Amino acid sequence: MTDVAGAMGAGRPDPAGNRPTLDERRLRRRYAAERRFKAYGIVAIGIAMAALAWLLFSIVAQGYQAFVHTHIKLEVFFDAQQLDPSGRNTPEALARGNYGAVYKSALRDRFSDVRKRRDRRALYSLLSQGAEDDLRAMVLSDPSIVGTRKEVWLTASDHVDMLLKGKIDRDRPERERPIKDRHLAWIDSLIADGKVETRFNTRFFSAGASREPELAGIRGAIMGSFFTMMVTLLLSFPVGVGAAVYLEEFAPRNRWTDLIEVNINNLAAVPSIVFGLLGLAVILNFFGVPRSAPLAGGMVLALMTLPTIIIATRAALKAVPPSIREAALGIGASKLQVITHHVLPLALPGILTGTIIGMAQALGETAPLLMIGMVAFIVDIPTDPLSPATVLPVQIYLWSDMPERSFVEKTSAAIMVLLGFLVVMNAIAIYLRRKFERRW
Amino acid sequence: MSPLSLIAALLALSIFGFYFGRRRAFAMAGGRGRSLHSRPGYYGAYVALWCAIPALAIFAIWLIVQPSVTESVVIAALPDALRDLGPDRMSLLLNDIRNVAAGVIPVERASPEVAAAAAHLNRLNATGNGALAVIALALAVAGLAFARSRLAPTLRARNGVEKTVDILLIACSSIAILTTVGIVLSLLFESIRFFGKIPFFDFVLGIQWSPQTALRDDQVGAAGLFGAIPLFAGTMLITAIAMSIAVPVGLLSAIYLSDYADLRVRAAVKPVLEILAGIPTVVYGFFAALTVAPLFRGMGEAVGLDVASESALAAGTVMGIMIIPFISSLSDDVMNAVPQALRNGSLAMGATKSETIKRVILPAALPGIFAACLLAVSRAIGETMIVVMAAGLAANLTANPFEAVTTVTVQIVTLLIGDQEFDSAKTLAAFALGLALFVITLAMNVVALHVVRKYREQYD
Q: Per residue in B408-432, pLDDT tens?
């Protein structure tokens, strides 16, 4: 726009310092308006970027600590009488041992001056229920430690964890905090001995849902998401590609195909919750698919993903030049052979890109799954598409409702995992597009 | 045999059929492919299709029919006292039996009759699944044998296979239609049942919403109140807040990106804006509920305003952020579609860039921008997770953005989460709300898509 730039120079007062003429003043006003307008645009983009940065920052700031958890080192006596009273030393017998008694007695040994029953119960609350699982895992992996004394790291309770992470304020009055003064004294003594440490929180990735924040993990939700996505992919990919191939390559242009086309465009814009209602009324109540199962969730999400895949596939098919079809037809291929041997392979990168983007949308979808009962509190990790399950976004929703302070951290961490999956999927889609995109 | 392993077995069998048919075709030709009508692969596909399609068809029909058959058998076998219950109680009882049978309710908690019926149901279902497995596999093998017997060099295998594929493709594209029909029918059917219980005008014109149906008949407000006006007012309030953020920000960034930014800036900023569109709504909901709402509440306290912790403002603001990329990318497309000649003409007359945009491009693009906003509004109305997590539950009829309001989608979710009886007005109300939501968003989309299409034709 060199002419505009040149005109800008004309707007300045001349060097002799004469008063600007009316024209010049008007020009200056116009250029000021031009600069203002440009600034509005920059401000608008700034707002959008700032909102994104704020969102991501608040999630990471709230959640990064969930990947570690506080552990307490204690000298534990693996008492054979508690762990293996029958003396059989088989894994089944060892798995049933009284591990609670073992870590409790270890705590009593460490703080031998605590005598009163109530104080002892408070003392036990330093450690989590998960300490039993820690001990059980140790014994089962190496049964020979039964009967010996050993220093081991055990999972601390979530209140201790929150205190160490600075989320509970020590200076608040005692009544208002879940950690009492005597807890503080014990913890400080442990810290002074170097017996408190934050370690990587493996349980967050290996455990299912739990009401105890320190025991809760996302494994169950991830497996649920995995099965749901598998069902979605298996249903929506073949059907979507088939529909697109038909509409793009076979369909005569008539009322019926017009109707289908308008329909697909409208389906893409139907609110997701309406798909949930459809799933409830048709898939659960009419077809009798089990409630809460990834199969039902996958079917609903497949219907939602279908328009995305169809639209992307049609675009990819359209991009294949007609000369290729004509060449294949010319040497005697049938229409189906032209498509399966030539057009589809050439359009495949575009189809896959669209499919991955559709799957990424489906992975983040929550509302329709709430309708078909994938919100149940499910502790067991699902093993197949028919067992009750929940998915990662629904888990996030459920955790965000939990009153405990440490679930905020868990929720943010689960969001980070979900966003991580989405970033990976979109990166694959972009890579595919870059690598295989062809200009004809 | 579980349905999943049966499907796996059927698929394995048809893959075997494919290789078997192809080998057979090679053998028939004696190594000279030219004596065959079709290429050998088509003979394989011919056998595989005969093997898979009848078996899968029987499988699908069986799975749909089996539950109703087994349940009616179970009902017929119930003790007389239970069998004479009214239809409402009967469906509750049936639900119990189903839950016990599926293991959702532990057997110990159920009454002995229900436990027995559940065991009966499980036995019947196991028998049914077994019979299905036998029949489907037998049909698959029979199909295989039949196709094998028809294999001959003169068999027009390719034509047969292509005809079948044609039909399958048509079936695929009809699923889109079936989905719409399914949505409309299920919403309509349940809504009609709802309006059988609650008069239509009480729903459309009522200004009180409290769907808690009482446990006893003599409680106050036993029937529940189903006036939908407060819900739609709440939805409109939140949507208006969202649009008042998204439209200026989205439109101005689209203008800047399409007319001012150089290519490098454009290449960097556009994907960042698209990230906003890719973030799942549950994440926005969490952000609204735990970061934005407390912030607004604190800011309100600082200036002496009473801001509810579930204020419409917080939900609307975050929804606005979510919609920004929607508006910006749609209006970017629309403005790019305005012919360059209009731009050049205006610049040649001495107009500045902003004057060109304001006086030439925006007026020319206005219908498209209007359509983009309409699509964004329909998106905002149907948005669920942000409002479920950050907006209120109580239906207030207010225009004050600092108060908590509830929306249509929030109510659908709260009515349907948890245990439900399918006949109560409460559950059916969710479908009536869903129908209203569907009709409104559909109307907006149809208008918007129509405008966009017409507008495109105008400049093509």
A: 999 999 888 865 555 677 888 899 9
Q: What is the pLDDT of residues A122-168, one digit of tens each?
A: 888 888 888 888 888 888 888 888 888 888 888 888 888 888 888 88
Measured in angstroms, the CA of B163 and the nearest CA of chain A are apart by: 10
For B437, which of A274, A291, A364 is closest by C-beta distance?
A274
User: Of the candidates B319, B326, B448, which has an alpha carbon nearest to the alpha carbon of residue B382?
Assistant: B319
CATH topology of domain A219-436: MetI-like fold (1.10.3720)
ipTM of the complex, rounded to two decimals: 0.88
Among A265, A277, A398, most B C-beta atoms within 10 A, so best to mutate, is A277
The answer to whether the beta carbons of residues A199 and A69 sit under 8 Å apart is: yes
* Domain parsing of chain B, residue ranges: 3-155, 225-459
Which of A290, A393, A412 is facing B282, going by the closest CB pair? A393
CA distance B229 to chain A (A): 20
Whether B269 and A49 lie within 8 Å, measured CB to CB: yes
Structure-derived torsion over alpha carbons of residues A55, A60, A66, A70, reported in degrees to the nearest 10: -130
CATH classification (class only), B225-459: mainly alpha
Rounded Cα–Cα distance for residues B207 and A130 (Å) = 51
pLDDT surpassing 50 at residue B449: yes
**pLDDT tens digits, residue range A315-355?**
999 999 999 999 999 999 999 999 999 999 999 999 999 99
By Cβ distance, the residue of A30, A388, A426 closest to B278 is A426
pLDDT tens for residues B241-291? 999 999 999 999 999 998 898 889 988 898 888 889 899 999 999 999 999
Cα separation of B455 and B450, whole Å? 8
pLDDT tens for residues B144-184? 899 888 888 888 888 889 999 999 999 998 888 899 999 99
What's residue B2's pLDDT?
A: 75
Question: Could A48 and B442 be called an inter-chain contact, meaning their C-beta atoms sit closer than 8 Å?
Answer: no
- From the list B172, B272, B352, the residue facing A52 with the nearest CB is B272
Write out chain B residues lying below 8 Å of A30, CB-based.
352, 355
Q: What is the pLDDT of residues A258-285, one digit of tens each?
A: 888 888 888 888 999 999 999 988 888 8
Nearest chain B residue to A28 by CA: give it. B352
- Give the whole-angstrom CA distance, residue B379 versus residue B372: 11
Average pLDDT over residues A365-383: 85
Q: Using CB atoms, pick whichever of A44, A260, A267 lies closest to residue B256.
A: A44
CA distance B352 to chain A (A): 7
Residues in Cβ contact with A235 at an 8 Å cutoff, skipping those fewer than 6 apart: A298, A299, A302
From chain A, pick out residues whose CB is under 8 angstroms from the CB of B281.
364, 366-367
The C-alpha of A170 sits at a distance from chain B's nearest C-alpha, in angstroms, of 23
